[in-house]
TrEMBL record, chains A, B:
Descriptive protein name: TetR/AcrR family transcriptional regulator
PANTHER family: HTH-TYPE TRANSCRIPTIONAL REGULATOR RUTR, TETR-FAMILY TRANSCRIPTIONAL REGULATOR
Signal peptide stretch: none
Pfam families reported in the protein's UniProt record: TetR_C_11, TetR_N
Domain HTH tetR-type residue range list: 1-54
UniProt keywords, alphabetically: DNA-binding, Transcription, Transcription regulation
DNA-binding span(s): 17-36
């Protein structure tokens, strides 16, 4: 995995091949294939194995502050190599490799979603989130605008952008009565 | 372009190559490369050349109904071959080919964003959208949850999902005073 990350830093994720990783690691390519049957699976394991900060929600009693802090941490991580390019390459692979997409969801997206829903449920019980808000959608709604920027417009995700998105999501589109 | 779409239907977008397209079209590969210097650019031109329904907003005076109608049309398009797999392949290419990402934004995302902001601005002036809502973010906020489902969780985007997202976005996270 270290060989893969080192090599990726040199040649980029597009040109990375299982064969190249095997050569760098000094093993046969079948040894690498036995462990990862695709580049996407290798990227996912690499991502999950990096000792990054744990993306857990605090509960200080202030939902906006806790969300802001957690999203800042995720955004800062994306700005720190190799996280951003690795995650982007992984999501690129997931577009044509359904097995990668399934693993990504099982091992990363779903656990994050559960934590997010749990933190928001507590906030809803404390009256900090509208009782009408559909909590099951909160992961799509909170992270969708970030993924849109990360994968589609490719503009940098700044803390200021995070603040504006949070404000807009709390305000909502509908006029207040 | 027809050759590319026909071939892609048979072999899939991953295995599609500029060389393969040239063979199918009965021309030299340099002829194809002169027109498209990458698979991603070919996908983008193919997508924009398909005679699909025009994604324009109506203004019936009811913003929620007009948004719903427009998003249903986009979602239905994604469910009709070759749109969905073609757009997914294009977004996959955009993750490792910055030139594709730039063209996609200039030729597709930005014009859609301008139409969306214009329709929402009219609604805000009519009092149907909160005066506090940050209109510049509306494209990220409206389409982010759809892209998240399309590119990350890969769950089907149903009309019911669109309805729930619109409700949640109009409600907003914040409690009503």
């Amino acid at each position: 995995m270290r060989a893969a990350l080192d090599l990726a830093r040199e040649v980029g994720y597009v040109k990375l091949s299982i064969e190249g990783v095997a050569v760098r690691a000094g093993v046969g390519k079948h040894t690498v294939y036995r462990r990862w049957d695709s580049k996407g699976q290798l990227f996912l394991d690499s991502l999950l194995s990096l000792n990054g900060p744990v993306l857990d929600y605090r509960d200080t009693g202030d939902i906006k502050a806790d969300l802001r802090r957690q999203i800042y941490a995720a955004v800062d991580l994306l700005g720190t190599p190799p996280w951003g390019p690795l995650y982007q390459a992984l999501l690129g692979e997931a577009q044509h490799d359904p097995a990668v997409s399934v693993s990504l969801n099982e091992r990363f997206i779903r656990p994050q979603t559960e934590k997010t829903v749990a933190r928001l449920r507590a906030a809803q019980e404390q009256g900090q989130v509208s009782p009408d808000f559909d909590l099951d959608l909160v992961m799509s709604i909170l992270s969708g605008p970030l993924y849109f920027q990360f994968l589609v417009t490719r503009e940098p995700i700044t803390h200021a952008y995070v603040d504006r998105v949070l404000e807009a999501l709390f305000t909502g589109l509908g006029p207040r009565p």
